[in-house]
Design brief:
The chain is mainly alpha-helical. It has 13 helices and no strands.
Length: about 300
């Protein structure tokens, strides 16, 4: 009797285990399906951009989803200056503006975020709130006053006319990421360094900065990408000598009047996008480590 009862109790338990196992498999499969749909949704436009960039001009509107009528003329046209396009110069301008913006934003952002994370002073959270509010301010509302200001200063068409507004966009992002990173660092690290004879500056430079390298590295990449992709401010405050890649691509002209050089535009967009994709893929571990550092004590 006891053996029969035990067998009857075992059947529902094994059935429940099978159901739980099947539920977990279904949940995992559903997650992978959703992730695959999102990846495909995001990558299809980029894939079509690359396909069109290698397609002959006469087959621009060909709906073939694979590489066909392949040619490199579009990349030659993107770098050619015969029609007034200056992609090479725009790449250099974007690199200069992006690097300087990233460096300046990091210099100010590191010290500001460290002070907000470590020091206790009045209106600390109010200052952080203002910084975060600045990151949500619409950039289109700044175009007119910035244009008027830089016109009065004779700065239109200069690098500083682009770098200064870009810093105002990159700095809140830098502070937002690094504040949470510094906040989760244990105070004992600095205290141990101070006991060993380090000053506050030496403890910050020799202990905190190396440990904060993943967060700083992540912030630098995100700040550089945001300045590299910016279009609105650059379209109004730059000229032919200082225009960035986004403005240069939007200004592409064809060999014939009123002709839109779609294939050359796609080639230029591929040239601009691929380095960013490669950089993110190469440093994805550091980016993930920087974004997740401090999430769990």
């Amino acid at each position: 009797m006891t053996t029969a009862t035990a067998a009857q109790d075992t059947k529902p338990q094994s059935h429940a285990r099978v159901q739980a196992r099947n539920r977990k498999r279904w949940e995992a499969g559903r997650t992978y399906i959703f992730a695959a749909v999102i990846v495909i949704w995001c990558l299809v436009p980029a894939y079509w951009m690359v396909v069109t960039s290698f397609r002959d001009v006469g087959f621009t509107y060909d709906a073939t989803p694979f590489f066909s009528h392949i040619t490199l003329d579009n990349y030659r046209a993107a770098f050619s200056t015969d029609t007034g396009n200056h992609l090479a110069r725009a790449l250099v301008n974007s690199l200069i503006v992006g690097v300087l913006t990233t460096i300046i934003a990091l210099i100010f952002g590191i010290f500001t975020s460290y002070a907000l994370a470590r020091l206790n002073f009045r209106a600390k959270y109010l200052v952080l709130g203002f910084i975060l509010a600045a990151s949500m301010f619409p950039g289109v509302a700044l175009v007119t006053p910035l244009f008027q200001l830089f016109t009065n200063l004779n700065w239109i068409g200069t690098y500083q006319a682009l770098i200064i507004p870009y810093i105002s966009f990159a700095l809140p992002l830098t502070i937002y990421i690094l504040v949470s990173f510094f906040r989760e660092m244990p105070w004992e690290l600095e205290e141990s360094a101070r006991i060993d004879g380090c000053t506050k500056g030496q403890a910050f430079r020799k202990i905190i900065m190396p440990l904060a390298a993943p967060g700083i590295f992540t912030t630098a990449i995100l700040a550089f990408i945001s300045s590299w992709n910016e279009f609105l401010i650059a379209s109004q405050l730059s000229n032919a000598q200082t225009q960035t890649v986004t403005v240069a691509i939007a200004s592409f002209t064809g060999s014939q009047p009123h002709q839109e050089p779609y294939t050359a535009v796609m080639a230029a967009a591929t040239i601009v996008t691929i380095p960013l994709v490669i950089m993110v893929l190469v440093f994805q571990r550091q980016i993930v480590a920087g974004l997740t550092a401090g999430a769990v004590k």
